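Example 3.2
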Amino acid sequence: MLITVAQALAGLALLYLGGEFLVRGAAALAARIGITPLAIGLTVVALGTSLPELVVSVDAALAGANDISIGNVVGSNIANIALILGVAALLRPVVVEAKVVRIDAPLMVLASLALVGVLMRHQDVSRAEGSFLVVCLSLYVGLTLRSARREPREIREEFASAAPEVRAGAWVSGFLVLAGLALLVFGGHFLVTSAVQLATALGISQSAIGLTVVAVGTSLPELSTSVIASFRGQGDIAVGNVVGSNIFNILGILGTTAVIRPLQLGGITWIDLGAMVALATVLMLLLLVRPRLGRVVGALSLASYVVYTVWLLTA
Protein backbone atom coordinates (compact mmCIF):
# COMPACT_ATOMS: atom_id res chain seq x y z
CA MET A 1 0.00 0.00 0.00
CA LEU A 2 2.76 2.47 0.94
CA ILE A 3 4.56 1.76 -2.31
CA THR A 4 1.35 2.41 -4.25
CA VAL A 5 0.76 5.72 -2.44
CA ALA A 6 4.39 6.73 -3.07
CA GLN A 7 3.97 5.87 -6.75
CA ALA A 8 0.82 8.01 -6.92
CA LEU A 9 2.59 10.96 -5.29
CA ALA A 10 5.54 10.54 -7.65
CA GLY A 11 3.14 10.51 -10.58
CA LEU A 12 1.50 13.74 -9.38
CA ALA A 13 4.89 15.42 -8.95
CA LEU A 14 6.00 14.40 -12.44
CA LEU A 15 2.72 15.64 -13.92
CA TYR A 16 3.10 19.02 -12.23
CA LEU A 17 6.74 19.47 -13.26
CA GLY A 18 6.04 18.22 -16.77
CA GLY A 19 3.23 20.73 -17.22
CA GLU A 20 5.43 23.57 -15.93
CA PHE A 21 8.35 22.67 -18.21
CA LEU A 22 6.16 22.28 -21.27
CA VAL A 23 4.26 25.54 -20.71
CA ARG A 24 7.46 27.55 -20.22
CA GLY A 25 9.16 26.00 -23.22
CA ALA A 26 6.11 26.35 -25.46
CA ALA A 27 5.52 29.94 -24.33
CA ALA A 28 9.13 30.84 -25.15
CA LEU A 29 8.90 29.24 -28.60
CA ALA A 30 5.55 30.94 -29.25
CA ALA A 31 7.00 34.33 -28.35
CA ARG A 32 9.99 33.76 -30.65
CA ILE A 33 7.70 33.29 -33.66
CA GLY A 34 5.75 36.46 -32.85
CA ILE A 35 2.71 35.27 -30.88
CA THR A 36 1.58 38.01 -28.49
CA PRO A 37 1.72 37.63 -24.69
CA LEU A 38 -2.08 37.91 -24.58
CA ALA A 39 -2.50 34.98 -26.96
CA ILE A 40 0.05 32.98 -24.97
CA GLY A 41 -1.75 33.71 -21.71
CA LEU A 42 -5.14 32.68 -23.07
CA THR A 43 -4.11 29.60 -25.06
CA VAL A 44 -0.67 28.16 -24.22
CA VAL A 45 -1.11 28.57 -20.47
CA ALA A 46 -4.74 27.39 -20.49
CA LEU A 47 -3.85 24.33 -22.55
CA GLY A 48 -0.76 23.66 -20.42
CA THR A 49 -2.75 23.46 -17.19
CA SER A 50 -5.01 20.85 -18.85
CA LEU A 51 -2.18 18.66 -20.15
CA PRO A 52 -2.06 16.44 -17.02
CA GLU A 53 -5.75 15.61 -17.57
CA LEU A 54 -5.03 14.79 -21.23
CA VAL A 55 -2.12 12.46 -20.49
CA VAL A 56 -3.96 10.67 -17.67
CA SER A 57 -7.20 10.28 -19.65
CA VAL A 58 -5.41 8.91 -22.74
CA ASP A 59 -3.26 6.55 -20.65
CA ALA A 60 -6.31 5.31 -18.75
CA ALA A 61 -8.29 4.79 -21.96
CA LEU A 62 -5.47 2.80 -23.55
CA ALA A 63 -5.26 0.70 -20.37
CA GLY A 64 -8.99 0.00 -20.53
CA ALA A 65 -9.75 2.06 -17.40
CA ASN A 66 -12.65 4.06 -18.86
CA ASP A 67 -13.95 5.03 -15.42
CA ILE A 68 -10.70 6.82 -14.61
CA SER A 69 -10.52 8.40 -18.07
CA ILE A 70 -13.98 10.02 -17.97
CA GLY A 71 -13.99 10.41 -14.19
CA ASN A 72 -10.77 12.40 -14.40
CA VAL A 73 -12.39 15.01 -16.67
CA VAL A 74 -15.76 15.18 -14.89
CA GLY A 75 -14.09 15.22 -11.47
CA SER A 76 -11.58 17.87 -12.55
CA ASN A 77 -14.39 20.14 -13.76
CA ILE A 78 -16.19 19.71 -10.44
CA ALA A 79 -13.01 20.32 -8.43
CA ASN A 80 -12.04 23.35 -10.54
CA ILE A 81 -15.21 25.20 -9.56
CA ALA A 82 -16.13 23.89 -6.10
CA LEU A 83 -12.63 23.32 -4.69
CA ILE A 84 -10.24 25.65 -6.54
CA LEU A 85 -12.49 28.68 -6.92
CA GLY A 86 -13.76 28.03 -3.40
CA VAL A 87 -10.20 28.26 -2.02
CA ALA A 88 -9.42 31.30 -4.18
CA ALA A 89 -12.54 33.18 -3.04
CA LEU A 90 -11.89 32.34 0.62
CA LEU A 91 -8.37 33.75 0.39
CA ARG A 92 -9.57 36.95 -1.25
CA PRO A 93 -12.91 37.92 -2.85
CA VAL A 94 -12.63 37.42 -6.61
CA VAL A 95 -13.84 40.21 -8.90
CA VAL A 96 -14.26 39.52 -12.62
CA GLU A 97 -14.13 42.49 -15.00
CA ALA A 98 -13.11 40.88 -18.30
CA LYS A 99 -15.95 40.37 -20.77
CA VAL A 100 -14.12 37.41 -22.31
CA VAL A 101 -14.52 35.45 -19.06
CA ARG A 102 -18.24 36.21 -18.86
CA ILE A 103 -18.63 35.13 -22.50
CA ASP A 104 -16.76 31.89 -21.84
CA ALA A 105 -18.97 30.95 -18.87
CA PRO A 106 -22.07 30.17 -21.01
CA LEU A 107 -19.81 28.25 -23.39
CA MET A 108 -18.64 26.17 -20.42
CA VAL A 109 -22.27 25.32 -19.61
CA LEU A 110 -22.98 24.47 -23.27
CA ALA A 111 -19.93 22.18 -23.41
CA SER A 112 -21.07 20.44 -20.21
CA LEU A 113 -24.59 19.96 -21.57
CA ALA A 114 -23.19 18.71 -24.88
CA LEU A 115 -21.20 16.02 -23.06
CA VAL A 116 -24.26 14.96 -21.05
CA GLY A 117 -26.31 14.88 -24.25
CA VAL A 118 -23.77 12.64 -25.98
CA LEU A 119 -23.62 10.25 -23.01
CA MET A 120 -27.42 10.17 -22.59
CA ARG A 121 -27.78 9.14 -26.22
CA HIS A 122 -25.82 5.87 -26.03
CA GLN A 123 -23.62 6.08 -22.91
CA ASP A 124 -20.34 6.41 -24.79
CA VAL A 125 -18.25 8.91 -26.76
CA SER A 126 -17.44 7.66 -30.27
CA ARG A 127 -14.54 8.72 -32.50
CA ALA A 128 -16.89 10.83 -34.62
CA GLU A 129 -18.22 12.63 -31.54
CA GLY A 130 -14.69 13.06 -30.22
CA SER A 131 -13.66 14.64 -33.53
CA PHE A 132 -16.63 17.01 -33.32
CA LEU A 133 -15.57 18.08 -29.82
CA VAL A 134 -12.02 18.80 -31.04
CA VAL A 135 -13.40 20.93 -33.91
CA CYS A 136 -15.50 22.85 -31.38
CA LEU A 137 -12.34 23.45 -29.34
CA SER A 138 -10.66 25.05 -32.36
CA LEU A 139 -13.65 27.35 -32.84
CA TYR A 140 -13.60 28.21 -29.12
CA VAL A 141 -9.92 29.20 -29.19
CA GLY A 142 -10.52 31.44 -32.21
CA LEU A 143 -13.55 33.07 -30.56
CA THR A 144 -11.63 33.63 -27.32
CA LEU A 145 -8.70 35.35 -29.04
CA ARG A 146 -11.05 37.51 -31.10
CA SER A 147 -13.06 38.56 -28.04
CA ALA A 148 -9.89 39.29 -26.06
CA ARG A 149 -8.81 41.95 -28.55
CA ARG A 150 -11.85 44.02 -27.56
CA GLU A 151 -10.90 44.13 -23.88
CA PRO A 152 -9.55 47.37 -22.34
CA ARG A 153 -5.76 47.70 -22.25
CA GLU A 154 -5.52 47.00 -18.49
CA ILE A 155 -7.44 43.73 -18.91
CA ARG A 156 -5.21 42.66 -21.81
CA GLU A 157 -2.13 43.41 -19.71
CA GLU A 158 -3.55 41.39 -16.81
CA PHE A 159 -4.04 38.33 -19.00
CA ALA A 160 -0.67 38.82 -20.65
CA SER A 161 0.93 38.69 -17.19
CA ALA A 162 -0.26 35.08 -16.92
CA ALA A 163 2.22 34.10 -19.61
CA PRO A 164 5.58 32.86 -18.25
CA GLU A 165 8.59 35.15 -18.63
CA VAL A 166 10.43 34.42 -21.86
CA ARG A 167 14.20 34.32 -21.41
CA ALA A 168 15.25 30.95 -22.78
CA GLY A 169 16.85 30.41 -26.18
CA ALA A 170 15.38 28.19 -28.87
CA TRP A 171 17.44 25.10 -27.93
CA VAL A 172 16.64 25.44 -24.22
CA SER A 173 12.95 26.02 -24.99
CA GLY A 174 12.86 22.95 -27.20
CA PHE A 175 14.51 20.89 -24.48
CA LEU A 176 11.94 22.10 -21.92
CA VAL A 177 9.10 21.04 -24.24
CA LEU A 178 10.56 17.56 -24.78
CA ALA A 179 11.42 17.13 -21.09
CA GLY A 180 7.94 18.28 -20.13
CA LEU A 181 6.32 15.79 -22.49
CA ALA A 182 8.47 12.96 -21.12
CA LEU A 183 7.63 13.83 -17.50
CA LEU A 184 3.93 14.04 -18.34
CA VAL A 185 3.93 10.62 -19.99
CA PHE A 186 5.77 8.91 -17.11
CA GLY A 187 3.77 10.79 -14.47
CA GLY A 188 0.47 9.94 -16.12
CA HIS A 189 1.37 6.26 -16.33
CA PHE A 190 2.45 6.14 -12.68
CA LEU A 191 -0.72 7.88 -11.52
CA VAL A 192 -3.10 5.68 -13.54
CA THR A 193 -1.38 2.46 -12.46
CA SER A 194 -1.36 3.45 -8.79
CA ALA A 195 -4.98 4.69 -8.96
CA VAL A 196 -6.18 1.29 -10.22
CA GLN A 197 -4.17 -0.46 -7.49
CA LEU A 198 -5.51 1.87 -4.78
CA ALA A 199 -9.10 1.32 -5.89
CA THR A 200 -8.61 -2.45 -5.71
CA ALA A 201 -6.83 -2.37 -2.34
CA LEU A 202 -9.36 -0.05 -0.69
CA GLY A 203 -12.43 -1.65 -2.24
CA ILE A 204 -13.41 1.64 -3.88
CA SER A 205 -14.64 1.83 -7.45
CA GLN A 206 -12.29 3.11 -10.15
CA SER A 207 -14.85 5.79 -11.00
CA ALA A 208 -14.70 7.17 -7.42
CA ILE A 209 -10.89 7.24 -7.51
CA GLY A 210 -10.98 8.95 -10.90
CA LEU A 211 -13.52 11.53 -9.75
CA THR A 212 -11.55 12.42 -6.60
CA VAL A 213 -7.87 11.47 -6.19
CA VAL A 214 -6.95 11.51 -9.88
CA ALA A 215 -9.12 14.55 -10.68
CA VAL A 216 -7.73 16.68 -7.86
CA GLY A 217 -4.18 15.58 -8.66
CA THR A 218 -4.42 16.56 -12.31
CA SER A 219 -6.02 19.89 -11.28
CA LEU A 220 -2.95 21.00 -9.30
CA PRO A 221 -1.79 23.39 -12.07
CA GLU A 222 -5.18 25.12 -12.04
CA LEU A 223 -5.06 25.32 -8.24
CA SER A 224 -1.62 26.92 -8.31
CA THR A 225 -2.56 29.42 -11.04
CA SER A 226 -5.88 30.47 -9.49
CA VAL A 227 -4.58 30.79 -5.92
CA ILE A 228 -1.60 32.90 -7.00
CA ALA A 229 -3.89 35.07 -9.13
CA SER A 230 -6.26 35.47 -6.18
CA PHE A 231 -3.42 36.61 -3.91
CA ARG A 232 -2.44 39.21 -6.55
CA GLY A 233 -6.01 40.46 -6.93
CA GLN A 234 -6.21 39.17 -10.52
CA GLY A 235 -9.74 37.81 -10.40
CA ASP A 236 -10.05 37.62 -14.18
CA ILE A 237 -7.14 35.19 -14.35
CA ALA A 238 -8.33 33.15 -11.35
CA VAL A 239 -11.78 32.58 -12.85
CA GLY A 240 -10.71 32.60 -16.51
CA ASN A 241 -8.20 29.84 -15.77
CA VAL A 242 -10.95 27.61 -14.33
CA VAL A 243 -13.56 28.36 -16.99
CA GLY A 244 -11.09 27.91 -19.84
CA SER A 245 -9.73 24.71 -18.32
CA ASN A 246 -13.21 23.23 -17.95
CA ILE A 247 -13.94 23.92 -21.61
CA PHE A 248 -10.56 22.47 -22.65
CA ASN A 249 -11.23 19.38 -20.51
CA ILE A 250 -14.49 18.51 -22.25
CA LEU A 251 -13.74 19.57 -25.82
CA GLY A 252 -10.01 18.89 -25.94
CA ILE A 253 -9.28 16.16 -23.39
CA LEU A 254 -12.35 13.96 -23.82
CA GLY A 255 -12.50 14.76 -27.52
CA THR A 256 -8.88 13.78 -28.18
CA THR A 257 -9.11 10.71 -25.95
CA ALA A 258 -12.26 9.50 -27.73
CA VAL A 259 -10.57 9.95 -31.12
CA ILE A 260 -7.73 7.72 -29.94
CA ARG A 261 -10.06 5.21 -28.29
CA PRO A 262 -13.88 5.47 -27.92
CA LEU A 263 -14.98 5.86 -24.29
CA GLN A 264 -17.71 4.10 -22.33
CA LEU A 265 -19.60 5.86 -19.52
CA GLY A 266 -18.82 3.00 -17.12
CA GLY A 267 -19.33 3.76 -13.43
CA ILE A 268 -19.78 7.52 -13.84
CA THR A 269 -23.33 8.27 -12.68
CA TRP A 270 -25.85 10.89 -13.64
CA ILE A 271 -25.33 12.43 -10.21
CA ASP A 272 -21.69 13.11 -11.11
CA LEU A 273 -22.64 14.59 -14.48
CA GLY A 274 -25.46 16.57 -12.84
CA ALA A 275 -23.04 18.02 -10.27
CA MET A 276 -20.71 19.13 -13.08
CA VAL A 277 -23.52 20.86 -15.00
CA ALA A 278 -25.07 22.39 -11.85
CA LEU A 279 -21.78 23.92 -10.69
CA ALA A 280 -21.05 25.30 -14.17
CA THR A 281 -24.55 26.82 -14.34
CA VAL A 282 -24.32 28.42 -10.88
CA LEU A 283 -20.92 29.93 -11.70
CA MET A 284 -22.27 31.30 -14.99
CA LEU A 285 -25.24 32.93 -13.27
CA LEU A 286 -23.01 34.45 -10.59
CA LEU A 287 -20.69 35.93 -13.22
CA LEU A 288 -23.54 37.30 -15.32
CA VAL A 289 -25.61 38.74 -12.47
CA ARG A 290 -22.95 39.89 -9.98
CA PRO A 291 -19.39 39.17 -11.17
CA ARG A 292 -17.92 38.93 -7.67
CA LEU A 293 -17.21 35.74 -5.73
CA GLY A 294 -17.02 36.59 -2.04
CA ARG A 295 -15.89 34.53 0.94
CA VAL A 296 -19.43 33.26 1.59
CA VAL A 297 -19.57 31.86 -1.94
CA GLY A 298 -16.11 30.36 -1.42
CA ALA A 299 -17.15 28.68 1.83
CA LEU A 300 -20.35 27.27 0.29
CA SER A 301 -18.36 25.98 -2.70
CA LEU A 302 -15.87 24.18 -0.48
CA ALA A 303 -18.64 22.75 1.68
CA SER A 304 -20.43 21.38 -1.38
CA TYR A 305 -17.22 19.74 -2.58
CA VAL A 306 -16.62 18.10 0.81
CA VAL A 307 -20.19 16.76 0.90
CA TYR A 308 -19.92 15.43 -2.66
CA THR A 309 -16.56 13.74 -2.00
CA VAL A 310 -17.71 12.12 1.27
CA TRP A 311 -20.87 10.83 -0.44
CA LEU A 312 -18.84 9.51 -3.38
CA LEU A 313 -16.32 7.61 -1.25
CA THR A 314 -18.87 6.19 1.19
CA ALA A 315 -21.76 5.38 -1.16
